[in-house]
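Memo to structure team: turn this sequence into structure tokens by end of day. - J.P.
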Amino acid sequence: MQDFLVEITTAVPPEVPSEEVDRRRAAEAVRARELAAAGKLFRLWRPIGEKRSIGIWRAGSEAELRADVLGTLPLWPWMTAVVTPLEPHPNDPGAASH
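Reply from structure team:
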């Protein structure tokens, strides 16, 4: 399993009805819990005052991450993602606990 740092920005088109946005946001929360339970979504943060998210996601490859993980998010059609593959750092203080 590979770790990825993923920065996601969501831009809902202005013509989308608010009911559709609300429905997708509710479904997004459910899907995020499912992906976390499956070990695909490890951590997720939102920078203070911003509408983007930064998270640690896990998948077998970047292609799998984009297609089979991020691509299953209900808001994905309105998202842009910057994906950075990660590898362990030799001085990572958390590595001893894994």
